[in-house]
Amino acid sequence: MVPKSFGFMMFLWVQTAANISVTGIIGSTVELRCDELNGTFILNNFRVIWQKEGEIECFVETYDSDEDLTSYRMKNQCPDFTGRTRFNEEPKEGKFTLQLLKISPKDEFTYSCVVLKNEKGKFTIHREVKTNLKVAANYSTPVLTHMSSGEETTFSCTSSHGYPQPKVYWVNHTDISLLNSTQHYTRAPDGTISVFSTLTVKAATGIKLECTVENEQLHQNLTATIDTTSPENSPSVDNTPSKTKGAVLGSVAAVSVVILLILYIVWKKRRTSVPKTYIAEHGLERNTYTLPAACHV
Q1: What's the whole-model pTM score?
Q2: Measured between alpha carbons, how far apart are the two ends of the chain, in Å?
C-alpha cells in the first residue's frame, strides 16, 4: 500500500528560496545533497520525496523504509529520470543525498528534497532542502583561420562542445581595441553548443588578433591568437585562463624583486667589508693603520 502522504506530495510545493547551488558537467553524475537532519534519527519515522520545481504530476525519486515502492515508482516517477537516480549514502544514517546520472541541459532546474516525519501517526513536513542545479560543459580550444579576398580579410574562430552559450571577444593587439564580429551557434544532440565567429577587416600587410571564448558558468576563458605578420603566417594558440596568466606574471614580478633585493644586500656587504686606511702624521713619519672592518664608521 502506498502512503497517502506520497500521493498528497504530488500536489505539494513549499515556496522557499533555494539554499544550495550546484554545477554539473554534461554527461557526468551530480549530487543533490539532503543530509542535514537534526536530533535522534529513526529511519522508520521518515519518508522522503525529491521533486522538480513546478512539476506536480510526477516525482524525481522517493524513499520509504517500510514499503516497496517499485511499482509506485514505475507509475509515478518522471520519465526523464527513469534509471538515472539513486541514493548515494545509507538512508538509515539520515542522509538522502540523491545522485543524478548522465545529466543534460534539460536537467537544469531547482530541486526540492522534502523530508516527512511521523508525528503521532501523522506524517508532516519535517524539513525541506532546495538545490539549484546549473549545467555546464567546457569548450574546446579555439581554432583560428583566415582568408583574404580582394580588399578584405575574413578571420574565423571556432570552439565546440561547451555549455551554456559563450561570449566571444576579438581584440586587435595593435591598439588593444575590441572589434565587432558575428556569431553563429549550433546545438549537438547532447545539448552542447558550438560557436562559429567571423571577423572581416580591410586587407593589410599584417595584423595580430586575439579571439577569446568565455564560459561564465565555469569561469573559463580560452584564447587563441593569429599573427599574419609572422613569416609562417600561421596562428598560434594560447588556452591558458586569464586568471592563471595574471598569477604567473605576479609570481615572476615577485621573484624579480627578491633577486634584486639579494643582489643589493650582497653589494652592500662587499662594500662595507673593503679595508679602509687611516693616515696619521707622527713627527716626520707617516704611519698607516688598517682599521678592522667592525670599526668602520
Answers
A1: 0.68
A2: 99
Strand locations in 53-139, DSSP E?
A: 61-64, 85-87, 98-100, 110-119, 122-136
Q: Which amino acid is at 59?
A: F
Give the CA distances from residue 164 to residues 25, 53, 100, 190, in Å, rounded to whole numbers and listed in that order: 11, 21, 19, 12
What is the DSSP-derived secondary structure letter of residue 274?
S
Residue 21 CA to residue 32 CA, distance in Å, equals 9
Encode 152-187: b = buried (16+ Cβ within 10 Å), e = exposed: ebebbbbbbebbbebebbbbeeeeeeeeebeeeeee
- Top-level CATH class of 4-136? mainly beta
Helical segments of 34-151, H only: 70-76
Distance, CA of 42 to CA of 25 (rounded, Å): 35
Q: Into which CATH architecture does domain 143-239 fall?
A: Sandwich (2.60)
For the chain, give percent helix, strand, coil, nearest 5. Answer: 20, 45, 35
How many Cβ atoms sit within 10 Å of the Cβ of residue 67? 13
> pLDDT 10s per residue in the chain (297 long)?
444 445 444 434 444 445 789 999 999 999 998 876 665 667 778 888 999 988 889 999 998 877 777 888 889 999 999 999 998 766 767 788 899 999 999 999 999 999 888 888 888 888 888 999 999 999 999 999 988 888 888 999 999 999 999 999 999 988 888 999 999 999 999 999 999 999 998 876 678 899 999 999 999 999 999 988 765 545 444 445 444 343 333 443 454 555 556 666 655 665 554 443 333 333 333 333 333 333 343
Domain boundaries, the chain: 4-136, 143-239, 256-295
